[in-house]
Amino acid sequence: MKAVVFDFDGTMLDTENLWYTETMNYLKETYGIDLPDEVYQQIIGTSEEPIIRYMMEATNGAFDKEAFLTTVAEACHLGQQSLGFRDGFKEFFEQVKANDYKIGLATSSGFDWIEPTLDRLGILTDFETIQTADHVDEIKPHPALYLQAVEALGVKPEEAVAIEDSKNGALSAMQAGLKVYIVPNEATKNITFPKEATVVSSFAEINLK
Asked: Which keywords describe this protein according to UniProt (predicted)?
């Protein structure tokens, strides 16, 4: 292997639980609706469209999409400022750097969401390429983000490993031809992942050799 491409949300730091809590609270407080977990799980690693479709039907079209997206995003931006790395991530990241792997990032989020946190945590300049939703027409599970990441790193897909936490992210990387390791978090631990991906309980279990 020559390269490691990381996901951001839920993989490096546990933003997924933050998004989950803020989303559920907003929908309950504003519309009195308890969103089913199976609907929420569909958005992890991709866009909020499954929630929007569900809420439009549940409210007979009264759901205010823009208010939902804006309010939840603002709350999560604020909450993210106090988040640190997931347990074991920093040690694994330092190991990747020490072994001279090319390092990339592929995320369905926008650059303005990830940049302040990567800078605050001191790893922004460690990435040779950062591919975000701003760079593609289709986000995960479409393979575009990972295809662009490996191209920018100058390696073949089969020479790279993707580190993910979600099903949509895993599908994206697999379709691009990368080997995939999944380190589930609290929001994704009950999801059934593709059998071709390797699911581990901690970053320490990932073997890049």
From this structure: Hydrolase, Metal-binding
d(CA 128, CA 125): 8
Would you list the DSSP string of 110-128? Answer: -HHHHHHHHHHTT-GGG-S
Q: For residue 150, give Cα distances in angstroms to 6, 82, 104, 162, 171.
A: 11, 31, 8, 10, 16
> Residue 7 catalytic?
yes
Count of all residues that appear for the chain in the document: 209
**What is the per-residue pLDDT across 9-27, written as a single tens digit (0 to 9) for each?**
999 999 988 999 999 999 9
pLDDT per position as a tens digit, 55-114:
999 999 999 999 999 999 999 989 998 999 999 999 999 999 999 999 999 999 999 999
Tokens of 107: 């995320």
Residues 9-47 as b/e (b if ≥16 CB within 10 A, e otherwise) read bbbbbbbbebbbebbbebbeeebeeebeeeebbbbbbbb
Residue of 7, 14, 34, 165 marked active site: 7
Phi and psi, residue 9, nearest 5°:
-60, 125
Give the residue among 13, 2, 40 at the shortest CA–CA distance from 203: 13
